[in-house]
């Protein structure tokens, strides 16, 4: 029997499933983004208008889209490095030969990842309450006047970044931990014999050996953080003054709150293009660094 | 999950009515239903509760997927939207034939909110209008022996009672709720939208007057510019004297009775809203009962609506939840007639105004509040804010104008 035909035979079920559940919905969403599908169209399809790239054009002229994009980029640019540093730090602490009760700490640090975001958001909203929160109480002890964490447009986003980093670092920590454990111990031993300080060991052994893990983690984190939605949804509902509206939050409001599915699909495709471009740039940069 | 269940239960049991409720009403209705089932042997009512935050989405999803219930409770500002989707059964002929439901017994403008394009789509179930909760003792201490009757008096009281430096504010106006500014705008002579609801009318003299009053309250530091997320627990703070006024709805009568100590129960009261010149209007909110067009049990669903519209049943609903009845005769019951705190609502209900009956309204009013909050924070002037709200409203209404030009939707 023809081997190529056999290969296709085995591939067909998977390809059919991919086409049915991935390709067709994506194409349908793209088609939707070229129309002004809304409540009226839901009632009667004759009320549907083909608007070509009109939804995209209008979005690019909407200040809210740009501010949502700005908030999302702010979240990515501050949140991703912060999250990486915290998770790498935690992973190194857990990996240290001096660490005691490793399973306990591993579980404790991973716990926020598996807890539902709504439940922890309730606790965080209490911690960051302006009048009664622990955060302001502690600041008060060292003489700093209270900060309106979630109510001040300047502070709401930093608070959400803190929340998201705390919520998500455990996931990357586990990946980093696996990466750290894969570094052969004799490399460190040789460096120590040569008299390398812990910092030099970190710079010249840990970081280079972790580079592939680092790239994967950063791409996963960047694409995850671009899809910021649940945190502002449960913490601030996009407020105050829409200062925490992210691109995905805008899409949710357009699509599911106001039922403007055409414009919501356009938001989704714009976000996809942006994420695609950013990931491509990251991959290329890392490849160049690898060749250099 | 609920949608799937609703769908299957309807087909496999011909004598089961599926009734969707939104928010707290579900639990109370479950206590009223046994009497209805006793009167109608063999008929079973399945009450399903939707959380308020998800209800709108669930209703639209159900319509898109043709899995609507037989009847539902529906916020009367949502009726235009579902009527535009052609999801609701017209009810005028049933009302005409009914012995229980008498349209003239209902508060006129509440009834009006159920009429879209000349058709009646719902029967009001309970009403919800905003008015003032106030601290009588604080007002007395400041030398006022009665709540305000007009804006000038109100402003004077707010000024006298606000001392932000010691954490005392005249009033709580959460900046993410649109109802407070909306009721001030409804008190004006100008409509909120113009030309058969084709364009926003927010640059009108009246709306700018309302917006100025609203924004001044923040600029003169008589209300904190916070959202209800940060306001957290307004009831205890009201009790502690952080706010002297609270512009809110009837459910708070129950909340204040429950949350404030017995010794403070004489300190607070309710008052109709002051208007620009004397007692003013407020919004005609609340929930209605509707039947879905696809229901195979419309007659039975109507029987349930008639049952829930009886004055005695509405009085029981009030006892259970504090939901205020939309019929004048229901207000004759013991509990409501003798309740001094409900009296202001009874008075206000004769002076309520409906909002424009179009599906886009909720979105417009949300944008109105977003812009108004920016003005309250001092980012926009009154004229800039009014022009911006108009611009956003006109953009939202673009599709409606197109449909009207093509005769697809009645003005």
From TrEMBL, chain A:
UniProt entry tagged with the keyword Lipoprotein: no
Pfam families: BPD_transp_1
Record keyword Disulfide bond present: no
GO CC annotation: plasma membrane
Transmembrane regions listed in the UniProt entry: 73-95, 107-127, 169-188, 209-230, 258-283
SUPFAM superfamilies documented for this protein: MetI-like (SSF161098)
Superkingdom as given in the UniProt entry: Bacteria
GO biological process annotation, one example: transmembrane transport
Keywords (A to Z) from UniProt: Cell membrane, Membrane, Transmembrane, Transmembrane helix, Transport
Family the UniProt entry places it in: Belongs to the binding-protein-dependent transport system permease family.
Entry protein name: Sugar ABC transporter permease
């Amino acid at each position: 029997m023809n081997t190529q035909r056999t290969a296709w035979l085995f591939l067909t079920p998977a390809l059919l499933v991919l086409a049915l559940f991935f390709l067709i919905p994506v194409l349908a969403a793209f088609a939707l983004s070229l129309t002004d599908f809304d409540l009226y169209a839901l009632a009667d399809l004759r009320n549907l208008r083909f608007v070509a790239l009109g939804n995209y054009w209008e979005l690019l002229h909407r200040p809210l889209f740009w501010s949502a994009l700005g908030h999302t980029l702010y979240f990515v640019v501050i949140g991703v490095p912060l999250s990486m540093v915290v998770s790498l730090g935690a992973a190194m602490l857990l990996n240290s030969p001096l660490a005691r009760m490793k399973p306990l700490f591993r579980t404790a640090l991973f716990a926020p990842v598996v807890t539902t975001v709504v439940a922890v958001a309730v606790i965080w909203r209490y911690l960051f309450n302006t009048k009664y929160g622990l955060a302001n109480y502690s600041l008060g002890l060292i003489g700093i006047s209270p900060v309106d964490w979630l109510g001040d447009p300047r502070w709401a986003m930093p608070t959400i970044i803190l929340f998201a980093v705390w919520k998500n670092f455990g996931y990357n920590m586990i990946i980093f931990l696996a990466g750290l454990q894969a570094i052969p111990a004799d490399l460190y031993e040789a460096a120590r014999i040569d008299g390398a300080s812990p910092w030099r060991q970190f710079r010249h052994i840990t970081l280079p050996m972790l580079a592939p893990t680092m790239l994967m983690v950063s791409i996963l984190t960047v694409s995850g953080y671009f899809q910021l939605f649940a945190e502002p949804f449960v913490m601030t509902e996009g407020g105050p003054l829409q200062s925490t509206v992210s691109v995905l939050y805008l899409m949710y409001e357009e699509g599911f709150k106001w039922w403007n599915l055409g414009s919501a699909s356009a938001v989704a495709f714009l976000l996809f293009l942006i994420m695609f471009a950013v990931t491509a740039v990251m991959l290329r940069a890392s490849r160049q660094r690898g060749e250099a | 999950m609920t949608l799937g269940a609703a769908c299957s239960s309807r087909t496999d049991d011909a004598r089961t009515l599926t009734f969707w409720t939104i928010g707290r009403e579900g639990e109370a209705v479950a206590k009223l239903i046994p009497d209805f089932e006793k009167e109608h042997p063999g008929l079973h009512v399945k009450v399903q509760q939707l959380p308020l935050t998800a209800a709108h989405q669930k209703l639209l999803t159900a319509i898109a997927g043709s899995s609507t219930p037989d009847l539902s409770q529906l916020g009367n500002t949502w009726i235009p939207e579902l009527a535009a989707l052609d999801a609701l059964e017209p009810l005028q002929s049933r009302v005409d034939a009914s012995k229980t439901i008498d349209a003239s017994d209902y508060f006129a403008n509440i009834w009006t909110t159920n009429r879209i394009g000349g058709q009646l789509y719902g029967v009001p179930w309970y009403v919800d209008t905003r008015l003032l909760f106030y601290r009588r003792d604080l007002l007395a201490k400041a030398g006022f022996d009665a709540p305000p009757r007009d804006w000038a008096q109100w402003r004077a009281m707010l000024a006298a009672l606000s001392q932000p430096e010691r954490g005392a504010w005249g009033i709580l106006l959460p900046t993410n709720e649109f109802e407070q500014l909306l009721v001030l705008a409804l008190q004006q002579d100008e409509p909120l939208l113009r030309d058969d609801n084709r364009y926003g009318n927010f640059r009108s003299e009246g709306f700018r007057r309302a917006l100025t009053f609203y924004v001044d309250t923040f600029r003169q530091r008589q209300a904190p510019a916070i959202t209800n997320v940060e306001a957290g627990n307004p009831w205890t703070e009201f009790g502690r004297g952080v706010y002297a006024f609270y512009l809110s709805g009837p459910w708070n009568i129950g909340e204040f009775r429950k949350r404030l100590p017995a010794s403070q129960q004489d300190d607070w009261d309710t008052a109709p809203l002051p208007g620009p010149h004397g007692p003013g209007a407020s919004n005609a909110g609340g929930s209605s009962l509707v039947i879905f067009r696809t229901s195979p049990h419309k007659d039975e669903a109507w029987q349930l609506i008639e049952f829930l519209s009886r004055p005695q049943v509405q009085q029981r609903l009030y006892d259970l939840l504090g939901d205020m009845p939309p019929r004048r005769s229901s207000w004759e019951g013991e509990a409501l007639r003798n309740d001094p705190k409900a009296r202001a609502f009874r008075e206000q209900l004769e002076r309520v105004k409906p909002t424009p009956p179009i599906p886009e309204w909720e979105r417009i009013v949300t944008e109105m509040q977003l812009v108004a909050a920016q003005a309250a924070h001092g980012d926009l002037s009154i004229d800039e804010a009014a022009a911006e709200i108009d611009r956003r409203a006109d953009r939202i209404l673009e599709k409606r104008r197109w449909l009207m030009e093509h005769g697809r939707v009645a003005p």
